[in-house]
Specification:
Layout: H1 2-25, E1 38-42, H2 45-49, H3 51-60, E2 75-79, H4 86-89, E3 93-99, E4 107-110, E5 120-126, H5 129-138, H6 140-161, H7 165-174, E6 177-178, E7 186-191, E8 194-200, E9 205-214, H8 223-237, E10 246-249, E11 256-262, E12 265-277, E13 282-292, E14 297-306, H9 313-323, E15 327-328
Parallel strand pairs: 1-2, 1-3, 3-5
Antiparallel strand pairs: 4-5, 6-15, 7-8, 8-9, 9-14, 10-12, 11-12, 12-13, 13-14
Helix pairs in contact: 3-5, 6-9
Length: 338
């Protein structure tokens, strides 16, 4: 009898353990796989090789603005449904294209975390090629924007977990905001209104200049004003290797300039190439300048990459993600004792 009771207790413990494990693991998902900036297009081969595929390629294979060599905005990797095994289901970005007479309603659906955590998944389906082409054309900006934003959000999440504490603390204490830089970055230079962070390797260099100045008029956000301030700062504070050389903007290359909203602040983004006057160095840069109305100042975050004869897109996007970790420090107002 005691043996039966003992056996029953053991079975009960095992059942409880299994049930507890199921509850604990329920909802857990694998992490995403694949290369940053890569999108799987899930469709039939005939769709991908035809006009529908051409329409998708035109969106993602467009040339990234502000690069010295042509680089696509994102890289495409095609799979048909038969090849969409578990190995690929955890890929970071998946775009499924379906054309079938069984589709009752043309639609574009977004499903975050479909098969993995932080995964970006989009499905576009229609009954005919004509209908799906219309959906793609009408939503070009939305389609590309969704995957680009997902990549940036993913990078921001990873970076924010373990920022370089020295940089984070310095900005919090001295600049009234924080930025999260990933491991490998270090402080390069500190001036009263200028802060240089960089990461060096034998083959490449990445960095960001963070500088501030008083906001005096709306003209501060004109393209020429931003350029003049940028070039003045770099000439004075970023010398090259040769005597008398310094970093500046390459004016013989197109410079893009866009207005946008950054965390509720009026902002402008400028992309182009930098060079070193008096030397043979250069590469892409992106400058984000925005209004800090609380402190009545303009904050500039100016990122650059040097990686000759290699792709630079993802190195620059890492720094763009750092920009989006910007967090103003809220001052604690102490209450007066009555």
């Amino acid at each position: 009898m005691r043996s039966i009771i003992k056996l029953s207790v053991i079975i009960l413990i095992l059942i409880t353990s299994i049930s507890s494990c199921k509850k604990t693991t329920k909802g857990l998902m694998p992490t995403v796989t694949g290369e940053s900036g890569e999108v799987i297009v899930l469709s039939s081969k005939s769709l991908f090789d035809g006009v529908v595929g051409d329409s998708i390629k035109a969106i993602f294979n467009d040339i990234q603005v502000g690069m010295p060599q042509d680089e696509a905005v994102m890289d495409l990797f095609h799979l048909n449904h038969e090849g969409f095994t578990s190995m690929f289901k955890t890929h970071r970005s998946i775009l499924e294209i379906k054309v079938s007479s069984s589709v009752k309603k043309t639609r574009l659906v977004v499903k975050n975390n479909m098969y993995a955590r932080t995964q970006a998944f989009m499905r576009i389906e229609a009954a005919s090629n004509k209908e799906i082409l219309e959906v793609i054309e009408e939503n070009r900006t939305k389609i590309l924007g969704y995957f680009l934003k997902s990549e940036r959000t993913r990078k921001v999440g990873v970076i924010s977990k373990a920022p370089v504490q020295e940089i984070f603390d310095y900005l919090r204490k001295n600049k009234k905001f924080t930025l999260a830089f990933p491991s490998g970055y270090e402080i390069g230079k500190i001036e009263p209104d200028f802060f240089w962070v960089k990461k060096e390797s034998p083959r490449s260099s990445q960095g960001m200049f963070v500088y501030t100045y008083d906001y005096l008029a709306e003209e501060a956000f004109d393209k020429n004003s931003i350029l003049m301030m940028r070039n003045a700062m770099l000439k004075d504070l970023v010398p090259g290797q040769n005597k008398g050389s310094y970093m500046t903007t390459e004016m013989n290359f197109p410079i893009s300039f866009n207005h946008f909203d950054f965390q509720g602040n009026y902002a402008v983004e400028m992309r182009g190439l930098w060079k070193v006057n008096g030397d043979f160095m250069g590469g892409p840069f992106v400058n984000m300048s925005f209004l800090d109305s609380v402190n009545n100042r303009v904050i500039c975050m100016d990122a650059y990459v040097y990686f000759p004869n290699n792709d630079k897109r993802e190195l620059l996007r890492e720094l763009e993600a750092v920009m989006h970790t910007y967090t103003p420090v809220k001052e604690v107002v102490k209450k007066k004792k009555k």
